[in-house]
Amino acid sequence: MAGSGTVFSSALEGMNHVKSESGEMLAKPFLDVCKHLLPVLDKFGAAFAPVKSDIGNNISRLDSKYSSSPSEFNLLYSIVRVEIEAKTAKSSSSCTNALLWLTRAMDYLVELFRNLHDNPDWPMSKACSEAYAKTLKKSHNWLASSSFSVGIKLAPERKKFMDILGGETPELNSDMGKFCTNFSPLLEENHKFLVGFFVFAQRSFVRICIIWFKFCVFNLFAGLCWNGRFESLMHVLNEICL
Description:
single chain; 242 residues; mainly alpha; Glycolipid transfer protein, GLTP; 11 helices; 73% helix; globular
């Protein structure tokens, strides 16, 4: 690959254009960086085909939303904000959910390549399993975790995989390290934004529950007071607080 770059070259170049002049994440450039990694996933063989399909579907969902109104959705997080306002962000088919899982999948790839870069003596299976344990595993249910574990066992041997990428040359190792270093902060920014949204949504739900609880207690109090049953009121409140 001498003179033509590495499998990471396009992604690295794309990262230079992910932020706007004001420092905000741009939708299309970010998605383009993720797209550049799809051919890399092909190098894993059929074992990682489901992973590539899942990543591709999430990219397509976000890309379709962006393409529906490029000016409105120029900024990546504007896609999420629109869904928050429409109260559709928590749907499994939402773009918010697509961004969440796309970011998680990218976390896994970054951690995998970091393992390969930092630990030249690690076999492919260990690099994959350690990356999975640190990233996706905590978000997967038992079935998804079991399926992923099977895929890891079917991954190619390290030497074969690295040869397919272009060999463990200084240029490839350098680009691999840059990819991990440069992409991680962008993914972390996604996580911070999404965590802020989910925390806000959770707090809103808790506030609604508290208001509803107070409303019920007030009406209960009013009803019992109207009938002069103070002892019954105290008994009910005591049961609620226990």
